[in-house]
């Protein structure tokens, strides 16, 4: 039985509708916002009871300020206490996976959530969500869209940020949810009528105007009103006579803090000491921890706990104790004298708590404690940076404020802080602080490490020119270790490749390989080899590209550790695709993705999506390629990996042009331009070529040629586009020829012929040369030969283009009809309409699918798996696609079918597809 929630009838009615929807099988997210003490927690409590009444499992937890110090604790803490218990979360019981291996726990959570939601709808409630830890916030951003088709409802409560608390991961998550358009409920102040009703409930009797007037002085804040009235009751200043409560006396508490203090002063001395001692703990605590802080034996605390329960402390869902509200804890904490506060923090730092929480207590325990905090965070910086770089950086920033400006260790502290800020993608802060350190006289190794952190952050953000500047500045230092030199050269090689400085990039990659092996920094050697593979690919040395990628993969498999975390199979897959080894490329990408998922390497996800998109594009599966690219773009933006967003946007533009959706292509181009305005760079074959194709498709071929002016000039030295898309050579010839530029048309042919000569084992390169030469010379024989080679390697889009051009030159209706069949199957609607016009007839449509004809073949496969009861993770494994791609397919399926619930889709599959689901 819960107490009546006054003044919130409309909000309760709204949440009731949401929960009815969830009970019927719909997922989604809802956010409750409002000032501290406004009643968000009470509303969430009511929502939990309403959910339970509807048979919905409830996993609830209040986030605490120091949750940020314990990766994944907010989310696992909620699921660990799911009621009724779910077998899917049994692995969370009695352990703290978030502390042992948080990244692996994160991967397992999604599977557990899908399994639990398959048994019954689930409501996940996070109160005070602004205090969520970084990894939980990241997980939620992944899980909300990933579980959108399942009956999982997320319910968050949070308050606006205060000026002194910074931009927490929780606040960032709430902004992301707001931008994503999630449903929100804002709680405002209670009106006078509601305050009067609340007063009656708290006092337990009718009240007169003296009580209502005093309660109104709390300005409609229910928590402050309740605390004030309780304090008045305890002090005897609010009395009930003849069933009516009334205020007596003039010496009344004037604020919430005063009301809490008044209430605390009514307790015994030992109980007051208990509350003041544990007020330094900003997260739930155990009896043993309370005993340590108070100097009592655990058994001696039981009567004291009984004395302070309800009004001050409550049972936490994890089995420990917590303050009824953090505002109450803060009010008590503020009564502690400075010296006592520091002493209690020193004692709290000895408790077995997460490293960053211990560091927080050390930081608050005086100057010597601040030094201990710095030592702890610096010693664990690399591990912490994987899961909570922002929280660690905040501790270091506060330590800098507390440290003596003349401390000789300050420059090194700044360097470590810069690296943590960079790892947290807080680039502007990192650069500003790094400038201070660089002018403070660092030793060479420390300065090089600082510059490496800045360079890696810039590379992640697509700021390649700045990346090279930082690397060069570091490499000018004398006496830095081989390992650091290797890391700098590896990052520099990749940035230079994106800037088109290929010879320098190859040299840096080679030095990273050599220095890394000599210095035992095998991760740098692997990354350097990957850079060399990129360079060779850009230069059209396709065999060298494959050799470097294979060498990187072999070294990573042999060395393991950080070397394996570089995931060189990304570049091995890329090299295999351009050499038409599609089956092996698919196996490599599939294996690499599994390794990446197991290790929690989220940075690699957009790259896997990009090369899977490239493979699907080469095989003429445009609809699947588009979904894969969109999924990759979502992941890239979620991680602020702007450099990786560019090639994905370029692929989306090219696919949209082929499908005839020029408006979508323009939207993607606008996105590219926004990133470019921020300094993000991309190689020309990724985005410049796509923009030119869009211009040409709009009929502005002269503008397309003008855009490609430098492209024709550099094509012989950088023929990567011709390797990626062999039909592009002929398209370049056509654009130049049709705009009256025969020299450039001839240059494109020569570049294709040179690529073929340098790669005699590549049938696609030979086909590209024959196709480009055939278009320039208007030679149907060469075009037919090119078509046969494209048929041999399995590139249907290039084959269709060559067949169409051959048909234009008189090779007959059969070439048109085959081209039409190919582009129709691929979903290249723009080419399909053009070929239909040339044939002078409309193609006979393929027979409609008897099962869910609204869906594409790829979507239908996903729907059939849903009909079998498969989870998204199982579907991804069965169909050999990523879970993000499954999510994207399901969003499209729901939109096409006009449904919102997974159970509706399963029902439709059974009705329309029958035995296909078994």
TrEMBL record:
Protein name: Regulatory protein, luxR family
Residues of the HTH luxR-type domain: 848-913
UniProt-listed GO biological process terms: regulation of DNA-templated transcription
Record SMART domains: HTH_LUXR (SM00421)
Gene Ontology molecular functions: adenylate cyclase activity; ATP binding; DNA binding
Coiled coil: none
GO CC, any one term: cytoplasm
Pfam families hit by this protein: AAA_16, GerE
Originating species: Paractinoplanes atraurantiacus
Keywords assigned: ATP-binding, Nucleotide-binding
InterPro entries linked to this entry: AAA_16 (IPR041664), P-loop_NTPase (IPR027417), Sig_transdc_resp-reg_C-effctor (IPR016032), TPR-like_helical_dom_sf (IPR011990), Tscrpt_reg_LuxR_C (IPR000792), WH-like_DNA-bd_sf (IPR036388)
Gene3D superfamilies per the UniProt record, alphabetical: P-loop containing nucleotide triphosphate hydrolases (3.40.50.300), Tetratricopeptide repeat domain (1.25.40.10), Winged helix-like DNA-binding domain superfamily/Winged helix DNA-binding domain (1.10.10.10)
């Amino acid at each position: 039985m819960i107490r009546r929630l006054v003044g919130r009838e409309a909000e309760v009615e709204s949440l009731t509708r949401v929960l009815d929807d969830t009970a019927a099988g719909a997922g989604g997210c809802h956010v409750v916002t409002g000032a501290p003490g406004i009643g968000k927690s009470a509303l969430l409590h009511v929502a939990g009871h309403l959910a339970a009444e509807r048979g919905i499992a409830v996993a609830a937890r209040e986030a605490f300020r120091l949750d940020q110090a314990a990766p994944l604790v907010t989310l696992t803490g909620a699921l660990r206490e799911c009621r009724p218990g779910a077998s899917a979360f049994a692995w969370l019981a009695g352990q703290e996976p978030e502390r042992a291996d948080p990244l692996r726990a994160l991967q397992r959570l999604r599977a557990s959530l899908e399994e639990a939601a398959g048994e019954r709808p689930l409501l996940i409630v996070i109160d005070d969500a602004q205090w969520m830890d970084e990894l939980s916030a990241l997980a939620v951003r992944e899980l909300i869209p990933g579980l959108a088709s399942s009956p999982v409802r997320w319910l968050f409560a949070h308050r606006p940020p205060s000026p002194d608390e910074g931009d927490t991961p929780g606040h960032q998550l709430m902004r992301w949810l707001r931008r994503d358009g999630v449903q929100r409920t804002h709680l405002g102040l209670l009106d006078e009528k509601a305050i009067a009703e609340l007063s009656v409930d708290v006092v337990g009797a009718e009240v007169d105007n003296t009580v209502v007037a005093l309660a109104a002085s709390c300005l409609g804040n229910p928590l402050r009103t309740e605390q004030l009235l309780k304090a008045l009751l305890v002090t005897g200043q609010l009395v009930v006579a003849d069933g009516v409560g009334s205020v007596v006396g003039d010496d009344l508490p004037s604020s919430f803090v005063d009301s809490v203090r008044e209430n605390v002063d009514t307790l015994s001395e030992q109980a007051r000491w208990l509350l003041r001692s544990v007020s330094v703990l900003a997260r739930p605590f155990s009896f043993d921890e309370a005993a340590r802080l108070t100097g009592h034996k655990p058994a001696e605390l039981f009567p004291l706990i009984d004395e302070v329960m309800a009004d001050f402390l409550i049972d936490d869902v994890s089995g420990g104790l917590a303050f009824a509200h953090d505002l109450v804890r803060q009010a008590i904490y503020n009564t502690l004298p400075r010296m006592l506060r520091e002493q209690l923090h020193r004692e709290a730092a000895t408790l077995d708590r997460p490293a960053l929480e211990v560091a927080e207590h050390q930081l608050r325990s005086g100057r010597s404690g601040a030094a201990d905090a710095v030592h702890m965070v610096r010693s664990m910086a690399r591990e912490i940076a994987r899961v909570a770089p922002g929280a660690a950086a905040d501790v270091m920033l506060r330590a800098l404020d507390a440290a003596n400006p003349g401390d000789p260790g300050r420059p090194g502290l700044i360097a470590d802080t810069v690296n943590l800020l960079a790892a947290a993608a807080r680039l502007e802060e990192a650069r500003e602080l790094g400038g201070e350190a660089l002018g403070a006289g660092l030793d060479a190794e420390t300065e090089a490490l600082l510059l490496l952190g800045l360079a890696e952050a810039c590379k992640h953000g697509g700021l390649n020119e700045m990346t090279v500047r930082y690397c060069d500045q570091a490499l000018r230092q004398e006496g830095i270790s081989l390992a650091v030199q290797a890391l700098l050269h590896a990052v520099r090689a990749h940035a230079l490749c994106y800037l088109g400085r290929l010879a320098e990039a190859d040299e840096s990659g080679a030095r990273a390989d050599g220095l890394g092996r000599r210095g035992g920094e095998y991760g740098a050697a692997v990354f350097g080899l990957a850079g060399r593979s990129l360079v060779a690919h850009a230069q059209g040395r396709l065999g060298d590209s494959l050799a470097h990628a294979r060498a990187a993969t072999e070294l990573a498999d042999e060395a393991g550790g950080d070397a394996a975390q570089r995931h060189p199979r990304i570049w091995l897959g890329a090299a295999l695709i351009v050499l038409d080894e599609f089956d092996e490329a698919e196996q490599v990408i599939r294996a690499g993705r599994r390794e990446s998922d197991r290790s929690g390497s989220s940075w690699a996800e957009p790259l896997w999506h990009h090369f899977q998109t490239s493979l699907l594009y080469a095989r003429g599966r445009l609809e699947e390629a588009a979904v894969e690219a969109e999924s990759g773009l979502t992941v890239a933006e979620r991680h602020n990996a702007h450099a990786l967003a560019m090639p994905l946007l370029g692929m989306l533009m090219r696919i949209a042009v082929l499908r005839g959706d020029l408006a979508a292509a323009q939207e993607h181009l606008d996105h590219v331009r926004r990133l470019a305005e921020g300094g993000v760079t991309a190689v020309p074959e990724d985005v410049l070529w796509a923009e030119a194709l869009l211009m040409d498709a709009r009929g502005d071929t002269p503008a397309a040629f003008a855009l490609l002016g430098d492209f024709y000039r550099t094509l012989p030295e950088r023929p990567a586009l011709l390797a990626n898309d062999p039909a592009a050579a002929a398209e370049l010839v056509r654009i130049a020829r049709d705009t009256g530029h025969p020299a450039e048309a001839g240059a494109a042919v020569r570049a294709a012929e040179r690529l073929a000569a340098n790669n005699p084992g590549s049938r696609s390169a030979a086909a590209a040369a024959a196709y480009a030469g055939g278009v320039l010379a208007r030679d149907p024989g060469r075009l037919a030969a090119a078509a046969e080679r494209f048929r041999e390697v399995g590139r249907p889009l290039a084959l269709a283009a060559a067949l169409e051009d051959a048909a234009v030159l008189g090779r007959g209706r059969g070439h048109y009809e085959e081209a039409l069949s190919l582009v129709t199957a691929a979903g290249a609607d723009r080419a399909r309409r053009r070929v239909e016009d040339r044939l002078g007839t409309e193609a006979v449509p393929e027979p409609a699918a008897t099962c869910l004809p609204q869906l594409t073949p790829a979507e239908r496969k996903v729907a059939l798996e849903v009909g079998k009861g498969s989870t998204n993770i199982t579907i991804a494994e069965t169909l050999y696609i990523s879970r993000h791609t499954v999510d994207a397919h399901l969003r499209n399926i729901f939109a096409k079918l006009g449904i919102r619930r997974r159970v509706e889709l399963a029902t439709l599959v059974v009705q329309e597809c029958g035995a296909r689901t078994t």
